[in-house]
Amino acid sequence: MMLTRRDFAKLGTLSLAARFAPALNAQAPTKKVGYAVIGLGRIADHFMRGALNTSNSQTTALVSGHRDKADRIAAQYGVPSGSIYNYENFDEIVRNPAVDAVYVALPNSMHAEYTIRAAKAGKHVLCEKPMSTNVAEAEAMIAACKAANVKLMIAYRCHYEPTNLRAIKLIRDGALGQVQAIESTFGFNMAPGEWRLSKKLAGGGPLFDVGIYSLNACRYLTGEEPEHIAAFVSTIDHDGRFNEVEENVSWTMRFPSGIVAACNTTYGAPMEGYYRVHGSKGWLQVDEAFSYDGLHLHADFSGTQLDEPNPSQDPSHFQAEADHFSHCVQNNLEPKSPGEEGLRDMRYITQIYHSAGITA
């Protein structure tokens, strides 16, 4: 059985509809959730464009250390000058009724501080992954949001993306039979001078940045938590880029069912973000699984062959996650990827580094 591009587009729409079924039964909100975007880098641009495409989210404030850049973006999104903050006066956001939530798009080491400050200001928090740079920070973020009675969601956009949801459903429905093994990779050749090469800002190397996609994918594909982890790290290119963080990380995981997974991430070479799942009845593979667009699912099981390119374009992933979090805020629901989900990955990252002989 072969599915056409049009068939897959329909499936994607149905999948998203099913994912957000509670929204169909809720009363349509009259006010969009207003976001203060903290940090105006590349990923913030994706998020703001995604939020603009929703019916329940809007950018209502900006936080930046560069006023000229903030003014330019404010004009683009209709943000009033009085709703532009810097990192020193950020706490004044507590008095801004147009801000219901914040989107934290800062370097990893700043996630905890601004999540906690936002929570104290009574604002809900959508925080980019990785959640933090260590377990203690992640736990403090969760505690602060609970104490302030605000919601915390980690921006695992693949949890809301149709191709990844399709792969999960096929596995849960038993299409592959008993899953035996998973392989996953993601990496790229990091340019010199990027903040991600600073351990103080990033917390670590490619595992924190792109390897976390493979780690998280193995968890949502199996629906299990790893019970054993073994890992290695290496640095091959001694060109100054990796004086503070490692270049390569490779790790294996065994899950309670016996499923084994092998993952690789790097800052030293182009490495497609993909996963391949092997089961007793066949296999499933998603190419560009963690990219903003270009995802493509292939499968062969029990006489059925699937070839499903995803026509969605950037910033559809960010649109889906903004839509979901805003829906949760409006209807007092728990997000699908709460702080506890990010905390689990932080604990596994710590285990990976510990196995490789590195203190995270």
Residue share in helices?
A: 25-40%
**Rg measurement, Å:** 20 Å
Helix-strand string: HHEHEHEEHEHEHEHHEEEEEEEHH
Terminal Cα span: 47 Å
Task: Name the average pLDDT.
Answer: 93
Q: Tally the beta strands.
A: 14
Parts with pLDDT < 50 across at least 5 consecutive residues = 1-27
Going by helix content, strand content and strand pairing, the class is alpha/beta
Strand order of the largest sheet: 8-9-10-7-11-12-13-14
Helix count? 11
Shape verdict: globular
Main sheet characteristics: 8 strands, mixed
Proportion of β residues? 15-25%
Describe what you observe in this structure.
With 360 residues, the chain is α/β, with parallel strands linked by helices. The protein is built from eleven helices and 14 strands. The chain has helices at 5-19, 21-25, 42-52, 67-77, 111-120, 135-147, 162-172, 199-202, 206-222, 316-331, 339-355; strands at residues 33-38, 57-63, 84-85, 101-104, 124-127, 152-154, 179-189, 228-234, 248-254, 260-266, 268-279, 282-287, 296-301, 304-309. The strands form two sheets. Strands 8-9-10-7-11-12-13-14 form an eight-stranded mixed sheet. The longest helix is centred in the middle third of the chain and has 17 residues, at 206-222. The relative contact order is 0.17. Residues 1-27 have low confidence and may be disordered.
